[in-house]
Amino acid sequence: MPEKLSLAELTKEMFSDYLGETFRLHLDNGDKIDMTLEEVTASRSHPIKGKEPTRQPFSILFCGPPPVLPQRMYTFEQEKMGMIENRFIVPIGEDQKGVYYQAVFS
């Protein structure tokens, strides 16, 4: 069984190593959908007064097959990276290649 990664462990650099790779999204009914990691983007950081940031905020963009999945929490698995549980993704667009989803890590 793949290693489960905590939210605190996930960084922009870690995801950048897997650009173009397949991530498997787990659905509640047991089905799995393969998605490709298309983009990893650093976000602007605005630290909260008195709170140390744990990492540089970033977002990731996946592309998967239709139909469009609802925005909500999903579990992802990447063969080498491991399991990423309860990650909120939002569908943000669709083209001939597939449906695009974004996840933000702050």
Describe this structure in words.
This protein has 106 residues and is mostly beta strands. It has one domain (4-43, 67-105). Helix content is 5%, strand content 51%. The protein has one helix at residues 12-16, and strands spanning 4-5, 22-26, 32-42, 58-64, 72-78, 82-95, 98-105. A six-stranded antiparallel β-barrel has the order 2-3-4-7-6-5. A hairpin with a 2-residue loop joins strand 6 (82-95) and strand 7 (98-105). The two termini are 27 Å apart.
Question: How many helices does DSSP assign?
Answer: 1
Helix-strand topology string = EHEEEEEE
Counted beta strands:
7
| Uncertain residue ranges | none
Kindly state the mean pLDDT as a whole number?
A: 90
Estimate percent helicity.
under 10%
CA-based gyration radius: 14 Å
Largest sheet, order of strands side by side?
Answer: 2-3-4-7-6-5
Strand content: over 45%
Summing up helix and strand content along with how strands pair, one would put the structural category as mainly beta
Structural domain count: 1
For the terminal residues, how far apart are their CA atoms? Answer: 27 Å
Coarse shape: globular
Biggest sheet features: 6 strands, antiparallel, barrel
